[in-house]
TrEMBL record, chains A, B, C, D:
SUPFAM superfamilies: Homeodomain-like, Tetracyclin repressor-like, C-terminal domain. This is TetR/AcrR family transcriptional regulator. Residues 3-63 form the HTH tetR-type domain. InterPro entries: Homeodomain-like_sf, HTH-type_TetR-like_transc_reg, HTH_TetR, KstR2_TetR_C, Tet_transcr_reg_TetR-rel_C_sf. Residues 26-45 bind DNA. The keyword Transcription regulation applies. Keywords: DNA-binding, Repressor, Transcription, Transcription regulation. It comes from Alicyclobacillus fastidiosus. The lineage of its organism: Bacteria, Bacillati, Bacillota, Bacilli, Bacillales. It holds the Pfam family TetR_C_24.
DNA sequence: TATGAATGAGTGTTCATTCAT
DNA sequence: AATGAATGAACACTCATTCAT
């Protein structure tokens, strides 16, 4: 079935995009990686840009789906936030290459596709913001600007793709706990 | 004086790199922006990559210098952290284009230059970590993993280049207070 | 088959390199000569320099092979020398363009490739020197400095590419006899 | 006086042309070598090509003048030939850089200047040929094709620029004797 | 499905030369 | 005499994409 080949191509592309960047990766590089000729690749992909779009789209989609399912659960806001952080970091670190491509390379997309990714990222932000708002309403959290606070949390979590490789000893679980503690309790004694 | 022209070129390059990305910006684009022929540009720059390096290097240098001067002050760790956040965000937002180029485009640099920037970013991280450690020693902060915590704070602060443009109503000052509150006191009521 | 095209390209390149010189010949010139787009040429060649290298290498290789086969024959040193001169001149004149490129343009090669050609030329010199030494041992020749003498003979023979075109009436055979007579018997009556 | 500067420039150019070749030597290289700005060089030279022409022209002129003065002497043809060889090799080796530029780089000249050099080289050939003819008439030499024989001798002598550097132990005098012996007496015992 | 030849626009960079100061 | 900014054409080479086979 062709979906095997397509998947193989996507995997190779993710690896290459992560290593060299989207623009520095040639179609030839991808073809070499999967043992096809450059021309043959076009039986499986519409274009190099589309390939990147598929990767980025599927990645952000997964983030959104996971978070949505957390929001749907019947647990406290605090628990939702902790779960969100743990899930987000686990997913980021388990698929570090894909996550890197998502956050670092999606900018190379044309206006249209980029807009789609941006909208989905925005949706993700909305969901995080909603958790905070739930916490405020339930009296668990004290937040004056939930959107900016959500952006702070997301920034901290997403930045991980830039440093995790070097600090390899920590697990996603470890980091979640440190992050959760920081965001929930703060630094002050 | 030639430094005027060089500066003009750097400014134009920053703007273009921010808008289109480094790789999508051609030397021709930069030449057009400053009203020179493509070839004439090379009186002022060594290469397109070197131009990017200059921009990124000067940017990270400024971050480091500012933070170093904060560390040198005789104030509490808490005050240092607050000051660090305010200064970092102010600088990021006042020079949003440059900051964007630094964090988004430096990856396009070759191995050598990229390593230089990485080392300097690492130095910045060390300084933030040291603030946290000072706070622990003074009894102000409770931190188990100062490096990871510093990465969280930095991630939150650096992510700003990705969202500030759309949330234009907030000042750097506003955001610093929200961030400081979050990191110092946490979300919990 | 691609080897046809590759050969066609090499032939066109030889002709152009001989006429205008390697550096004055643009890749565009070669492309025009074979009716391809500039970019399409790169399906067949690795680089312009590599193209020159192929030409030069194949030329000097042929010289060496021919001379080696002469040395392997069971004939007198005098006969070997006469045969060497005849063969060398015949090959030079029959492939005057290639020979010209070899002796005139190989200097444009980068250090590595140039070294390879130099080493092979040196090997050729060694073979000629050996003929002279054989002649000395057999008592046929009187030579005090076989290497320098070989260089004299080779210089005379290789210089031909610089003047043959204008003196077109003489055949390689004619010239060989004149050269052989000069080197064997000398000018004196 | 400006002729000093001009001379300095010519000397630097010779050295560079010999090392890197005319085309690979930039005007900047020459300017650097004499401590001037690129633009300032044009107070002393008409063009890069003209600079090459001056060098080549002066070199071939000297060869011709020297040979002419030999022909004017009242000595035997044999002595003239020996003297020609000695003088030619001495000049070649004493000014190896200039000689190299003359024989290797003059081809880079445009049609007009190249023609001038070619005509002067031809004149040199004529003079050598005349020596041989004199020897035939005086009964000293046995030569059937004096022009081709002259070309053989010249080829051997001019080729020297290609190998002398590596065989540095031999003096011009040494080589002249070997060459003279070869051309006058031949190899045969 | 797979090939590989071909495209053609585009890339960063070099360079000899000019000229106002 | 000397500068150095500016030119503008030229250069080798790359690359995503197409398409006939």
């Amino acid at each position: 079935m062709s979906s095997n080949k397509q998947n193989e191509i996507a995997l190779a592309a993710v690896k290459l995009f992560e290593q060299k960047g989207y623009r520095a990766t040639s179609v030839q590089d991808i073809a070499d990686a999967v043992g096809l000729q450059k021309g043959s690749l076009y039986h499986y992909i519409a274009s190099k840009e589309d390939l990147l779009m598929q990767i980025a789209h599927q990645a952000i989609l997964q983030f959104n789906e996971q978070l949505q399912s957390i929001l749907d659960q019947d647990i406290s806001a605090r628990q939702k936030l902790e779960l969100m952080i743990r899930t987000h970091l686990t997913m980021s670190i388990d698929n570090l290459e894909t996550t890197t491509v998502l956050w670092r390379e999606a900018f190379a997309l044309g206006e249209g596709p980029q807009e789609v990714i941006a909208r989905m990222s925005d949706e993700y932000l909305n969901l995080v913001t909603r958790i905070l708002q739930e916490g405020v309403q339930s009296g668990e959290f004290h937040v004056t600007e939930p959107r900016v606070t959500a952006l702070a949390i997301l920034g901290a979590c997403n930045w991980v793709y830039r440093w995790y490789q070097q600090t390899g000893s920590l697990t996603a679980e470890d980091i979640s706990q440190i992050f959760s503690h920081l965001f929930l309790d703060g630094l002050l004694t």
